[in-house]
């Protein structure tokens, strides 16, 4: 069980500052997701915690112990790589046993842990195969199995699902979430997919250009994004960002309104809009509408039964309670 | 209408690829099969450059091989040269490859530097090492002379001369091993080392448990290539020792040369060459099969 | 038919090179030789031949080992791509036995230069009454010595190998070894030098070579004595590592002042007394190699030019040879290269040639002439099997020298192997 604390941690590769000095606390048993666009530094941050990269400045404490210059193997953490990083020349059994072999855990104990992990992960029939003979999902499970058996104080996941197809990804997402519920071990999970972040996290850390933009629960981020970046990044489809001038009476430089918080009428409303592309998902329909004077089309979500024709005129009114206001610096105004 | 019409585009593509192979097939036919067949025919003949031939075909050259003490001596010299030569080349090549990729990964000049010996023609390499092992010419001897130490003469004893040839052979051929193993190392995902580090392995453990096993196919291949090539020992011996002292560095290939060109006994020379070829082919076959078993 | 088939058979051994027969233009010939001062000089003035005759001569000068393979390929494959070939006298018997050369008695008789060529070397190419090649040079064994060292030791230049042993003991030191000679095994390496010692003590290869009794007789008390002297000289009074010396190492050791005596061929010996090539040249004297109870027998190596049996245009080839051994051509090369051992005699009367080589060393031309006079044509037996015999004997001599076997064992083995090679 581990509580991880980053204090003024900083990382530069040469002159490029990948992580600007930051502080972060990860509570024991928490499922924390680092999310952000590619290049935001989220993987680097994870690798700093893992000990695969050295910090340029600052300290990393794991369970109150300064681990900044501790080698990776001594930190008691387990990591699941995007590439799975399975040892191709070892059978599944040997892959899973490897960290226990390194820790000199007795054979019998190893055997028992492998078997129980295999059972949990549905790998019992594959223990004597090599990674090359497994499907992507099975390899992912082996990687997780290898992480579980050493009973780490925290799990680190580096975009573990990005090599899987969409259906498998949803399944594995749930499996990992369930695993977390059962083990109650700290998990730090890196992804660029905000849906994964929203569905899995207890706490989301939004990173952008090496800086933490916001830390909070999924709903906090959804309901109260602290700035335009978080507002635009969290939520699907993206929040509409509109110049403040388009909303009379609301005093803001920019306003944000989520597609699901816009009311549609064929008769009257705040904005008159021309319907563009519509995306019918069955349960929902998203359509894009152009409003005179706005540079970007507005995305609107309605239920699946709404029929709108391309080119027809509709009226859109934002739900005033759900409008997010931002100042000229992009900071939320409350 | 057949249920499965031949897709025209693929057929054409295939034909194209097949045509591309033709020159290679032709070249192999001319430069490998024809001479090989000729050599095989000669090895059963009694053809002698001076005495001509009585069209007496048979196994007598091969019968003679079995009781030829000089052949046995040459096999010993060849085995020592090949075994120690290939072993040191692979070990040194591997050590430098690992050093270059893991320790000084970005030192590109190093790679070029270590490749240089491979680009030097064998005769030139042999001349360099001949002078290094000739006490009157060698800077090594001159250096130790300053301290009153006499470096022994290598080329006048069997083991010393074999050692000298192994040195020259290693110097020029370790870059080949280095190159292949470097390529293999670069084919191993760095994630594996990191995973091993997180799994609690030290650097040394990580190398022996993860990296090294993954290099085995490359090791096998490099050993096989170098081994086959080492059976063809010639320029080093010709330049450095002329087979001496006595006959003690006459490797089998060199002995075949002497039988063919000095003794004019083309048929017997061919029989030695054919036997050498068969042995090399059998060993190659088994190594290739072993490699297949390991990689699958 | 039989000949054609064997030819095809052996040609296939050599990677289809036989398939690439060169097409000759009417006025073009190919000459293949290995590197020596004369051959390099000839190559440099090939243009003169074309100017004189309108025939283009492509002169290829290659390494000696490559040469062996190249001509074996060409001749067994009957490719006809060589019109004139470098023919060492030591190989000519073997080549004639293998039907590689064309007899050129009539062609040589018709050459104006014939009477100007030294009779000994010319006759060395006469086999079964036919002439097979024309000599251009005759290298002999010579000895160089450091005058200053001998003077300091108060000893004279040894005239016999026996004296050499005594002198060597006196002049040998850690800095300057007494003597170096070729030692690596091979008919052109240690077997160019060792027979000088062997013959001086009365040793011989065969019972009676001149009378045609080719019973191997190398295992004799005389040869054993010679071998012991040779071994003692190199092992006790030679530089370290002498057992693997070839001519290049001997030359370097003398040029570096590491030895007092060098017994070598004309080319190397000349370079050691030439102030342009050795900084010890002014302290170096040149003389005949030592003799012994059975006289003095300097080594001799004759080189010439022959016409392959497969040559397409023998008339052009003969024309080229006549030009190549003419006094005029020889003089040019003698002046341009370190080439003093020409066999076209009138060149020696050329003032410039005399001036050039007297400047190298005043005694040089006289010593060379004397050595040539003393040398016997069959210094190394002129037999088709000689390359094989020389190789086998040389390997055993080198084995004894380096302590792999006793001298007695070496000579016994050598004689047995000679029998095997000759099929006795």
Structure notes:
The complex is a heterotrimer of chains A (334), B (296) and C (424). Chain A has 334 residues and is α+β, with helices and mostly antiparallel strands. Chain A folds into 2 domains: 4-232, Rossmann fold, CATH 3.40.50.300; 240-333, OB fold (Dihydrolipoamide Acetyltransferase, E2P) (Beta Barrel). Chain A is built from 8 helices and 19 strands. Chain A has a 6-stranded mixed beta sheet, sandwiched between helices. A 5-stranded antiparallel beta sheet of chain A has the order 13-17-14-15-16, with no helix packed on it. Chain B is built from 12 helices and no strands. Chain B has helices at 8-43, 60-66, 69-103, 108-119, 122-132, 139-145, 158-186, 190-198, 203-230, 235-240, 252-262, 266-295. The longest helix of chain B has 36 residues, at 8-43. The mean pLDDT of chain B is 87. With 424 residues, chain C is α/β, with parallel strands linked by helices. Chain C folds into 2 domains: 9-138 and 301-374, Periplasmic binding protein-like II (D-Maltodextrin-Binding Protein, domain 2), CATH 3.40.190.10; 139-299 and 381-422, Periplasmic binding protein-like II (D-Maltodextrin-Binding Protein, domain 2). Chain C is 47% helix and 16% strand. Chain C has 19 helices and 12 strands. Chain C has helices at 2-13, 37-44, 46-53, 64-76, 89-97, 105-109, 119-123, 147-153, 161-171, 190-200, 221-237, 247-255, 266-273, 314-325, 327-336, 351-360, 364-374, 386-401, 407-422, and strands at residues 28-34, 56-62, 84-88, 126-127, 130-131, 133-146, 177-180, 206-208, 213-216, 259-265, 284-287, 300-306. The longest helix of chain C has 17 residues, at 221-237. Chains in contact: A-B, B-C.
What's the arrangement of secondary structure elements?
The complex is a heterotrimer of chains A (334), B (296) and C (424).
Chain A: E1 4-13, E2 16-26, E3 31-35, H1 42-50, E4 57-62, E5 65-66, E6 77-80, H2 92-102, H3 107-120, H4 136-149, E7 154-158, H5 166-183, E8 186-191, H6 194-200, E9 203-208, E10 211-216, H7 218-223, H8 228-233, E11 240-243, E12 254-257, E13 262-265, E14 271-280, E15 284-291, E16 298-303, E17 313-318, E18 324-326, E19 332-333
Parallel strand pairs in A: 3-8, 3-9, 6-7, 7-8
Antiparallel strand pairs in A: 1-2, 1-4, 4-5, 9-10, 11-12, 12-18, 13-17, 14-15, 14-17, 15-16, 18-19
Chain B: H1 8-43, H2 60-66, H3 69-103, H4 108-119, H5 122-132, H6 139-145, H7 158-186, H8 190-198, H9 203-230, H10 235-240, H11 252-262, H12 266-295
Chain C: H1 2-13, E1 28-34, H2 37-44, H3 46-53, E2 56-62, H4 64-76, E3 84-88, H5 89-97, H6 105-109, H7 119-123, E4 126-127, E5 130-131, E6 133-146, H8 147-153, H9 161-171, E7 177-180, H10 190-200, E8 206-208, E9 213-216, H11 221-237, H12 247-255, E10 259-265, H13 266-273, E11 284-287, E12 300-306, H14 314-325, H15 327-336, H16 351-360, H17 364-374, H18 386-401, H19 407-422
Parallel strand pairs in C: 1-2, 1-3, 7-10
Antiparallel strand pairs in C: 3-12, 4-5, 6-10, 6-11, 6-12, 8-9
Helix pairs in contact in C: 2-15, 9-11, 10-11, 12-13, 18-19
């Amino acid at each position: 069980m581990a509580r991880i604390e980053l204090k003024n941690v900083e990382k530069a590769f040469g002159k490029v500052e990948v992580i600007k000095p930051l502080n972060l606390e990860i509570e024991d048993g928490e499922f924390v997701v680092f999310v952000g666009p590619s290049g935001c530094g989220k993987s680097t941050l994870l690798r700093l915690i893992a000990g695969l990269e050295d910090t340029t400045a600052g300290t990393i404490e794991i369970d109150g112990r300064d681990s900044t210059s501790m080698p990776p193997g001594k930190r008691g953490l387990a990591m699941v790589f995007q590439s799975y990083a399975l040892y191709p020349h070892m059978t599944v059994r040997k892959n899973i046993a490897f960290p226990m072999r390194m820790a000199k855990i007795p054979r019998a104990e190893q055997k028992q842990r492998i078997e129980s992990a295999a059972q949990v992960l549905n790998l019992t029939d594959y223990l004597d195969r090599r990674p090359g003979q497994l499907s992507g999902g099975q390899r992912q499970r082996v990687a997780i199995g290898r992480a579980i058996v050493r009973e780490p104080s925290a799990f680190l996941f580096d975009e573990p699902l990005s090599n899987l197809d969409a259906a498998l990804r949803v399944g594995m997402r749930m499996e990992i979430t369930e695993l977390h519920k059962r083990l109650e071990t700290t998990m730090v999970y890196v992804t660029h997919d905000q849906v994964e972040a929203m569905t899995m996290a207890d706490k989301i850390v939004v990173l952008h250009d090496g800086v933490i933009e916001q830390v909070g629960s999924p709903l906090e981020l959804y309901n109260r994004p602290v700035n335009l970046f978080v507002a635009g990044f969290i939520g699907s489809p993206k929040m509409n960002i509109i110049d403040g001038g388009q909303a009379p009476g609301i005093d803001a430089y920019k306003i944000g309104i989520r597609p699901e918080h816009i009311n549609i009428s064929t008769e009257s409303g705040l904005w008159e809009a021309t319907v563009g592309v519509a995306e019918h998902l069955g349960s929902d329909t998203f359509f894009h509408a152009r409003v005179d004077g706005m540079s970007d089309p507005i995305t609107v979500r309605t239920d699946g039964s709404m029929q709108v024709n391309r080119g027809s005129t509709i009226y859109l009114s934002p739900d005033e309670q759900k409008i997010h206001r931002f100042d000229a610096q992009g900071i939320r105004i409350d | 209408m057949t249920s499965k019409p031949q897709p025209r585009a693929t057929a054409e593509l295939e034909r194209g690829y097949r045509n591309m192979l033709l020159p290679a097939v032709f070249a192999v036919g001319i430069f490998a099969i024809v001479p090989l067949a000729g050599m095989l025919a000669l090895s059963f003949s009694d053809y002698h450059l001076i005495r001509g031939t009585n069209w007496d075909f048979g196994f007598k050259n091969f019968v003679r091989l079995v009781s030829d003490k000089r052949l046995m001596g040459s096999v010993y010299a060849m085995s020592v040269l090949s075994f120690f030569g290939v072993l040191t080349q692979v070990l040194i090549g591997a050590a430098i490859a690992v050093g270059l990729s893991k320790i000084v990964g970005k030192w590109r000049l190093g790679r070029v530097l270590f490749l240089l010996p491979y680009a030097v023609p064998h005769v030139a390499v042999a001349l360099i090492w001949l002078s290094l092992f000739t006490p009157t010419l060698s800077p090594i001897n001159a250096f130790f002379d300053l301290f009153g130490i006499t470096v022994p003469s290598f080329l006048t004893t069997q083991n010393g001369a074999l050692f000298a040839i192994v040195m020259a052979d290693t110097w020029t051929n370790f870059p080949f091993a280095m190159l292949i193993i470097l390529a293999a190392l670069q084919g191993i995902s760095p994630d594996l080392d990191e995973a091993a580090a997180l799994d609690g392995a030290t650097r040394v453990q990580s190398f022996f448990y993860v990296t090294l096993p993954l290099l085995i196919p490359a090791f096998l291949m490099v050993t096989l290539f170098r081994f086959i090539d080492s059976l063809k020992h010639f320029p080093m011996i010709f330049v450095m020792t002329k087979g001496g002292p006595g006959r003690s560095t006459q490797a089998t290939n060199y002995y075949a040369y002497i039988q063919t060109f000095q003794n004019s006994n083309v048929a017997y020379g061919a029989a030695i060459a054919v036997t050498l070829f068969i042995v090399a082919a059998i060993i190659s076959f088994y190594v290739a099969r072993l490699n297949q078993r390991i990689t699958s | 038919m039989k000949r054609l088939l064997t030819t095809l058979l052996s040609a296939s051994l050599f990677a289809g090179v036989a398939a690439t027969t060169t097409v000759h233009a009417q006025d073009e010939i190919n000459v293949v030789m290995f590197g020596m001062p004369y051959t390099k000089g000839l190559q440099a003035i090939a243009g003169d031949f074309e100017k004189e005759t309108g025939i283009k001569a492509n002169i290829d000068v290659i390494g000696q080992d490559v040469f062996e393979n190249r001509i074996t390929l060409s001749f067994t494959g009957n490719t006809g791509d060589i019109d004139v070939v470098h023919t060492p006298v030591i190989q000519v018997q073997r080549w004639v036995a293998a039907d590689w050369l064309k007899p050129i008695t009539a062609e040589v008789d018709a050459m104006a230069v014939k009477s100007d060529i030294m009779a000994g070397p010319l006759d060395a190419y006469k086999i079964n009454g036919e002439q097979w090649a024309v000599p251009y040079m005759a290298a002999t064994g010579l000895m160089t010595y450091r005058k200053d060292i001998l003077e300091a030791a108060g000893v004279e230049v040894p005239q016999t190998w026996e004296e050499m042993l005594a002198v060597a003991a006196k002049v040998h030191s850690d800095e300057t070894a007494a003597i170096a000679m070729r030692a690596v095994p091979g008919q052109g390496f240690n077997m160019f030098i060792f027979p000088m010692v062997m013959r001086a003590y009365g040793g011989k290869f065969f019972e009676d070579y001149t009378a045609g009794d080719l019973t191997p007789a190398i295992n004799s008390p005389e040869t054993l004595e010679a071998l012991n002297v040779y071994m003692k000289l190199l092992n006790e009074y030679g530089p370290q590592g002498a057992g693997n010396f070839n001519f290049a190492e001997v030359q370097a050791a003398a040029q570096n002042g590491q030895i007092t005596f060098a017994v070598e061929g004309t080319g190397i010996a000349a370079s050691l007394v030439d102030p342009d090539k050795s900084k010890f040249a002014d302290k170096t004297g040149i003389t005949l190699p030592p003799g012994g109870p059975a006289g003095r027998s300097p080594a001799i190596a004759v080189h010439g030019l022959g016409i392959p049996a497969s040559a397409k245009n023998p008339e052009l080839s003969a024309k080229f040879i006549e030009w190549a051994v003419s006094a005029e051509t020889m003089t040019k090369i003698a002046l341009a290269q370190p080439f003093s051992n020409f066999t076209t005699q009138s060149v020696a009367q050329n003032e410039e040639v005399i001036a050039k080589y007297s400047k190298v060393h005043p005694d040089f031309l006289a010593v060379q002439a004397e050595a040539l006079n003393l040398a016997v044509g069959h210094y190394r037996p002129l037999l088709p099997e000689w390359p094989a015999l020389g190789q086998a004997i040389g390997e055993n001599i080198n084995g004894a020298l380096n302590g792999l076997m006793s001298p007695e064992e070496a000579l016994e083995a050598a004689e047995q192997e000679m029998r095997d090679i000759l099929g006795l």
